[in-house]
Every structure is written in C-alpha cells, then in structure tokens.
Specification:
Number of strands: 6
Radius of gyration: 17 Å
Largest sheet: 6 strands, parallel
Shape: globular
Order of helices and strands: HHHEHEHEHEHHEEH
Structural class: alpha/beta
Number of helices: 9
Helix content: 25-40%
Strand order of the largest sheet: 2-1-3-4-5-6
Length: 248
C-alpha cells in the first residue's frame, strides 16, 4: 500500500535527520558475495514481486571529492519508493585521477551490477563531476545500451569555472568549460541512444558556474527554484522526483 504524501514527507524528514547514523553503513555495491546461487534466486523472486520500474538496479555516481556516503538519503528515498536495498549501488572513483579512467571503471562496475542482478540495464543517478564520468561512459564508451535512465543532479555536464580552483588535477582541467573532454561529450547528440535523460539545476547552486551548465539538449531539464550544490544530497523533494523519473 502506498504511503500518503504527508506521511511520506514526514518519514523522509526523519530519514534526513538520521543521515549521520546511516553514513557508516556499507553500501549495496560493497555487499559480500556469500551464496551466489541462493542470493540470485532471492533477488529474482523479489524482483518478480515488485513493479518492473522499481526493480531496475540504480547506480549512484558521486561528485568531486565525494564518496558512497553522499547517497545515504537518496538510498532511503528510493527504498521508500519501492526499491530493494540490494538493487541500489554506489560507484566510487578517484576524484584526482582522470575521468576517462573513471568512466572506464564505471563501465566495469555497471557490467558487474548487471551480472549480479540479472538485469539487462541499470539506471544511473549522478551528482556534480559524476555527470562527466557518466556522460563519457554513455556517449564515448557506448554505455547508453546498458542504461535505461540517466538522472544528473547539478551535473557539471558542460563544465564549471569553479574548477579553476583545482586545475593542478587532471579531473579539474577536464571539468573546466571548453576543455577537450567537455567538447568530446557535448559535441553532436548530448543524449544518445534510447536512454531517458533528465537533469536538475538551480541558480542557487554556487558550484556549477554557470548553473545552466547542467542542462543537456534532448533531456528533461528541471529548474529547481533554489538549492545549493551540496544541499541536493539531502533534498528529499528533488530526490523523490529523481526516483519517480527513474521509475517512469
């Protein structure tokens, strides 16, 4: 039975307050592989009992200097929307390395999630620099064939001048507007394949400069009235919209 919107918002508010309590919990992506056969059978039975839309595995991709703990509130929201915790994964990468390598790592991670869950496709939800990692994977590495939905929350999809503060790192040089990396992922079709794309962006972001950098041609671009860059990670309203999009 679905919860009423009022009860759902109350529960989500409580989940946000408990953010720090949950942050030490292991992510689904790091779960130990015990009995692979019985685990796969259990997941298959669970997926069959739930609507197809919420049985799609979700891969969360953090931003610059982020990690899996950034997605604690998002995981709670998705579970309230009907997802099993075993279908929620967080990909971690080297923020100071190279986003081409990070995208290649994402490709391997997605293949592993598909193998573990038996799903033919996953949904990707990214934040900040995670947008660059995701876009390179989908567009350059052909990952769009493995991704049903791409949700970019304050993604640095066309770069941000804020990256000028850390140009000593390759990832920041790639994230600066006009970089060859940005040109590669934005030239031609920005939303390739049959993947459904959506973005969330706000004039109050403060990190993605200009804030419209997140928008993707061909995507459903959602202008959030006022939210800070890090504030999105605990914004249960926006995260609820993201979950609804992935379930569509």
């Amino acid at each position: 039975m679905r919860r009423s919107p009022r009860r759902l918002l109350g529960f989500l508010a409580a989940a946000t307050v408990a953010f720090t309590l949950f942050s030490s919990a292991p992510t689904a992506g790091a779960a130990p592989a015990a009995d692979a056969t019985s685990a796969s059978a259990a997941r298959a039975a669970e997926a069959a009992a739930r609507p197809l839309s919420t049985s799609t595995p979700v891969v969360f991709v953090h931003g610059y200097t982020g990690n899996a703990s950034n997605w604690v509130t998002a995981r709670s929201v998705f579970q309230l929307k009907g997802w099993s915790g075993s279908d929620l994964f967080a990909y971690e990468y080297n923020s100071y390395g190279n986003n081409i390598s990070n995208a290649q790592g994402l490709a391997t991670f997605v293949d592993d999630v598909k193998s573990r869950t038996g799903a033919s496709k996953v949904a990707i939800v990214n934040h900040s620099m995670g947008g660059l990692v995701s876009q390179y994977y989908l567009k350059v590495l052909g990952g769009d064939s493995s991704v049903s939905h791409l949700a970019s929350i304050a993604g640095a999809n066309h770069g941000t001048t804020y990256a000028g503060a850390c140009l000593v790192y390759t990832t920041c040089r790639q994230m600066y507007p006009g970089s060859s990396f940005i040109s590669q992922i934005t030239s031609g079709d920005e939303t390739p394949g049959d993947t459904k794309y959506a973005t969330w962006y706000s004039a109050c972001d403060g990190i993605i400069l200009p804030y419209t950098s997140t928008r993707l041609d061909g995507a459903t671009n959602n202008n959030v009235l006022c939210q800070t860059h890090i504030g999105y990670l605990a914004d249960t309203v926006v995260l609820g919209q993201v979950a609804n999009f992935v379930a569509s």
